[in-house]
Amino acid sequence: MHTREIAKNLYLIELETGGFKNLICSYVIKGAKTTLVESGPTSSVPRLLDGLDELKVKHEDVEYVAITHVHLDHGGGAGTLLKSLPNAKVIVHPRGMPHLVDPQRLWASAQLVLGFVSSIFGQPEPVPKERIVTATEGIFNLGDGAKLTVTETVGHASHNLSFKESFNNGVFPGDAAGTYLPEFDAVVPTTPPPFHLESALSSLDKLIALDPTALYYSHFGKASNGIQLLIDYKVQLKLWAKIVAEGVKADQTSEQISERILAEDKVMCKYADYFRSHPIYSRTVIINSLQGFIEYAKQTQTPASPS
User: Fold this and answer.
1) Over 50: is that where the pLDDT of 307 sits?
2) Are 115 and 81 in contact (CB under 8 A)?
3) d(C-alpha 101, C-alpha 79), whole Å
4) Degrees, nearest 5: CA angle 275-16-162
């Protein structure tokens, strides 16, 4: 069994991408109009379809596939998935739509940023334009009074959406709320370049204002203490920004800045060995997320005036 019920009418499918547990999941909202949240990567589509079968969801009954953003691990499998979901349409941010229709630039960028991890996720296939619905705000009717409310939550990406489901008033934040590690009940940054700190903090305020009963992380799973995690994540982002800004100003190497983060961020410090040894997170958290902050710091620091 790789599916489980986590709330009323809501199920989690463990995608076990690349053989890694607690890495990526998709969600199924069962209602009059069955909705998936996140297609996951291309390589995990067979497991997602197996999960639907396990839940006895007919493929033709899926109405929507809501994509928080188009990065490979969240929406990369949409084109492949839709071949098996004949009536489904993809909900995505308008800025993400071109990358679903023609994913070549997305794939090239992912290979550059993610390296070997991109091959674990798999190459995305195109999504037919007529099967895409774009949104930044608004409400989708899921039938029988159920709703899926869309909120734009950019920062991690310029096209990140969050979705609130009305059955339990929980929120799917995509990567706007960081990466949740259920084994530690802790969150760590997911801030690859191009990262925008002010937008990310503003999006966290939006999520807090939604007052969710729980957060449903794509990485990974349900967190019932969502409000506190959002507050803690704001503090964590500000800490990383401070450390990186000081490091860039002092012309430190990325390795030197990384070691300071691992020493001063209480979560990173406590689980440093876990991050260093994890084949995926050692790349995405320690290298890519740090690089997002470094590039942000370089862009925002004002050169000193000549004396």
Assistant:
1) no
2) no
3) 9
4) 80
User: What is the residue extent of each domain of the chain?
Assistant: 3-234, 237-300
pLDDT digits (tens, 9 = 90+) for 193-250: 999 999 999 999 999 999 999 999 999 999 999 999 999 999 999 999 999 999 999 9
What pTM did the predictor assign? 0.94
**Cβ-based neighbours of 136, under 8 Å, separated by 6 or more:** 93, 94, 150, 152, 161
Query: What CATH number does domain 3-234 carry, 1.10.3720.10, 3.60.15.10, 3.90.550.10, 3.40.50.10860?
Result: 3.60.15.10
Between the CA of residue 51 and those of 28, 60, 166, what are the distances in Å?
A: 9, 15, 23
Residues near 137 by beta carbon (within 8 Å), at least 6 away in sequence:
150, 151, 152
User: What tokens does 8 get?
Assistant: 């009323």
Q: What is the Cα–Cα distance from 284 to 114, expressed in whole angstroms?
A: 7
Helix or strand run (H / E) with residue 119: helix 116-121
All residues at 6 or more sequence positions from 186 whose CB lies less than 8 Å from its CB, including other chains: 180, 267, 270, 271
Q: State the pLDDT at residue 211.
A: 96
Instruction: Report the pLDDT value the prediction gives residue 275, as an integer from 0 to 100.
Output: 87
**Cα–Cα distance, 65 to 70 (Å, whole number):** 12
Q: Where are the beta strands (DSSP E) in the chain?
A: 3-7, 10-14, 25-29, 34-37, 62-66, 89-92, 132-134, 138-143, 146-152, 161-165, 170-172, 179-181, 186-188, 215-217, 221-223
Max Cα–Cα distance, the chain, nearest Å: 72
| Mean pLDDT taken over the chain | 94
Distances (CA, A) of 97 to 3, 174, 228, 297: 29, 16, 33, 29
Query: Please, are residues 41 and 77 in contact by the beta-carbon 8 Å criterion?
Result: yes
**3-state SS class at 141:** strand
